[in-house]
Amino acid sequence: MSSISRRTFVRGVAATPLFAAAPRPTGAPLRFHAPATAPESVTVNWLEDKPGTNVGSTWGVPWPQGAVPADSPFALATPDGAAVPVQSWPIGYWPDGSLKWSAHALPADAPVHDTYVLRRTTGPAPAAAVTVSDRRDSIVIGTGLIDVVVGRRGEALIRSISRDDTVIARDLRLVSLRQTTADDGDERRTSRERLTSDVRKVTIEQRGPVRAVVKIEGTHRRRGRSWLPFIVRLYFYAGASHVRVVHTFLFDSDGQKEFIAGLGVRVGVPMRDEPYDRHIRISGDGDGLLREAVKGITGLRRDPGAAVRTAQLAGRKLPDPATWDQRVTTRLPLIPAWGDYTLAQLSSEGYTIRKRTKAGHGWIDVDAGRRSSGFGYVGGVSGGLGFGMRDFWQKYPAQLDIRGADTDEATATLWMWSPEAGPMDTRFYHDGLGQDTYPEQLEGLNITYEDYEPGFGTPYGVARTTELTFFALAATPSAPELAALARTVAAPPQIVAPPAHLAAAGAFGGLFKPVDRSAPDRAKIEDRLDFLFDYYRDQAESRHWYGFWNYGDVMHTPDVDRHVWRYDIGGYAWDNSELSPDLWLWFAYLRSGRADIFRFAEAMTRHTGEVDVYHLGQWAGLGTRHGVQHWADSAKQQRISTAVYRRIFYFLTADERVGDLMHELVDSDRTFLALDPLRKIRTEPYTPDPHALSIGLGTDWSGLAAAWLTEWERRGPKAAAAEKKLLATMRTIGRMPNGFVTGSGLYDIDTGEFAVAQKTVSVSHLSAMFGQVEICAELIALVDLPAFEAAWLQYCRLFNATREEQTAETGAHFGNLILKQGHSRLTAYAAARLGDAALAARAWREFNATDGYTDASPWRTTALTGPEVLNPVEDAPWVDTNTTALYGLAAIQNLALLPPA
């Protein structure tokens, strides 16, 4: 596929010549009718294999329109009919008020089965429910196993975690290290200051009985300086021994004059046992585990006895030293106590562990490995704290610290940015190259595909979310138990609804069906879909697409000469959701139920929703086009921030943080007052007018519509305004003589209406490729607005039609368009809605024999090794992300909408 130029796109949107009117077909299209009934039960299952450790799980289930009352009760049972407590709540509604999506929570003390049966009936309450007690300056949450005190003000987010009236941990707070120079030379003259969390607001979002959620907001503060606003959610499940922490920080710096030199979560752990009964555990590769005592009695010159040594290695309480070999007992004070440990994962390919007795003394190398799962334990036979960070090595540089384990209170710190890695460098990567004017910048776009503009390559306002877990343990667990906890942190057990139910309920516009290999042609397409996902999964590994800011994204285009992806060439580097790889992955999961696709898509959702979008500042609500750095390009647009890329993950998991991200976008129409997306190519003066904003009917409107739709169906705080604007834009698009073919319209922020334009033609190959297909399918299934549907079906029919057909209906042809394979799904949608067999046949021809991937594509990789490449890799230089995402979406949706070719 030829490279897609933003310049070509924006010129296409801006061009609006007038043509004579031509009538649009007015016949009422055929309509899908949602089933009037829903199944009485749904069998749900774990995403991966049945977990060894149940820590609770939350998941979403869709229901057909009009079939389930909004207040419907639910019950959960094992396959043999035994009742299991469950908490249920609505997270999405159909316009008629019926339930569209329900969310459910499984308690941590529930029996673990391969599957569960969710029924639409009343179920039992949990035996040990989560309790939430409000106090004047704190909130106390009890799970039945632990009690957690959350502070309403001050430095500590969690004041204490107790188990059986014993304080296991206290004063959990956030820490950041701020540095004002970047240390570019050999000589380092830097100073760092430590800032800690300052809690400003605490909200109880859910009170049980199975699941409770507390949201904490604040900043990092020291003396007069406040920076890095944070949003932290604490999750509690009935019967759980742990607290799940979802940590988000917002980068409120321009990244030029101050730098993050460390970012972490720190907690105190009281140490009550004798030093020889205190234990350190740190996870390595896989189930690998470092097992040590603060004061070790193994390997000594004198042997305390086999039973004593075995007990210490197992983490059990040792016999009275009076029973040991006295040659050891009398010399216990002469054995060093190792109080400090550090594991530093400074790349995706290696970590080191070292220890020392105490501050002021030398570090001793312990060992090294490749990829730590990021889990540790400090404590003793009378209790201790397990702590871990998800995606630890994937989001390097990360670090685990244990300090003072030989004292009355140890501290454990999970560093999301390791202090040993050096300052986080977010400065722009070049000096501008003399691109001071719009014409010069457009020339730059023509050579490196980067849309540069001074001052636009700033990280101010981006964010990052990290998941952490803290376990209050009654004693030092066995090695297998600790390995199981480490696996749980790395891949939290997730319950899911099966693909057949997701499809039958009409989820996400009905644009997918379960994988079907029953016919040879379909099996061929399925094999190619598998090939493409497997290739990207393996490329992430072999090309090392990891790191704090990068993990979750993929590259845009390969460099066929260097046998690398174009990581250093302008807009060809990080993809930043260009042409909807997020949707390709989620639709691939919805129809297959594959765990590896879910996890890949989940990481992308976490990344693209946080890192590629601004959450603070003048561009809040806009995302950044693809580039060498995720915030480098000057094109700040709705097409990247769009809620359509977050919706699927949200409804499958009820994740509150992703819900925040979509809610942030409800008022993002106001960003068009702050930034004109067509500023570089306008030929006439333009001043943004809140009552006549120039907004494209493609990538701009679809992004706004996705946010409004999501707020409306979630019944969010701004649902009424969102509904008003969504329906007003739909009505007025339907009134335009050429509907979506018009290209853009003048929008009134107050009324939500577009001014009805004259009959114009302005069509871009990009307009529908950033979620508009998916949003329009959902809207047409939700809202009975025939004129809007007719406008969308016209666009779907005509994009890949002949020039003569385009001209006859709209007054002009659409020019030289590309992405015909990706647009075959528009033809397929029109064919399905209209019951048009000729359109269906045309859609398959467009899919199989236009641009994009075809039978003539190689459909294989080539093994490359050194010295031709740096690392061994399976290379497919004919694969790029634009084509892959569109082939994947077209294949999935065509298979769902059309009969076999």
Quick structural gist:
Helices cover 26% and strands 25% of the residues. By secondary structure, it is α+β, with helices and mostly antiparallel strands.
Strand-helix topology:
Layout: H1 6-14, E1 41-46, E2 57-62, E3 75-77, E4 83-84, E5 87-93, E6 99-106, E7 115-119, E8 131-134, E9 138-142, E10 146-151, E11 158-163, E12 166-179, E13 192-207, E14 211-222, E15 225-237, E16 242-250, E17 259-270, E18 278-283, E19 289-293, H2 306-314, H3 326-329, E20 340-347, E21 350-356, E22 364-369, E23 375-380, E24 383-389, E25 398-403, E26 409-417, H4 438-448, E27 463-473, H5 479-490, E28 495-496, H6 499-504, H7 520-542, E29 558-559, E30 564-565, H8 581-592, H9 595-610, E31 623-624, E32 636-637, H10 638-641, H11 644-653, H12 656-663, H13 671-674, E33 693-696, H14 699-714, H15 719-735, E34 744-747, H16 772-782, H17 786-798, H18 803-810, H19 820-834, H20 837-849, E35 862-864, E36 873-875, H21 881-897
Antiparallel strand pairs: 1-7, 1-28, 2-6, 3-4, 3-7, 5-6, 8-9, 9-10, 10-11, 11-12, 12-13, 12-17, 13-14, 14-15, 15-16, 16-27, 17-26, 18-19, 18-23, 20-21, 20-25, 21-22, 23-24, 24-27, 25-26, 29-30, 31-32, 33-34, 35-36
Helix pairs in contact: 7-21, 8-9, 8-21, 11-12, 14-15, 14-16, 15-17, 17-19, 19-20, 19-21
Organism: Actinoplanes italicus
Domain PcRGLX/YetA-like central beta-sandwich: 130-486
Domain PcRGLX/YetA-like C-terminal alpha/alpha toroid: 492-899
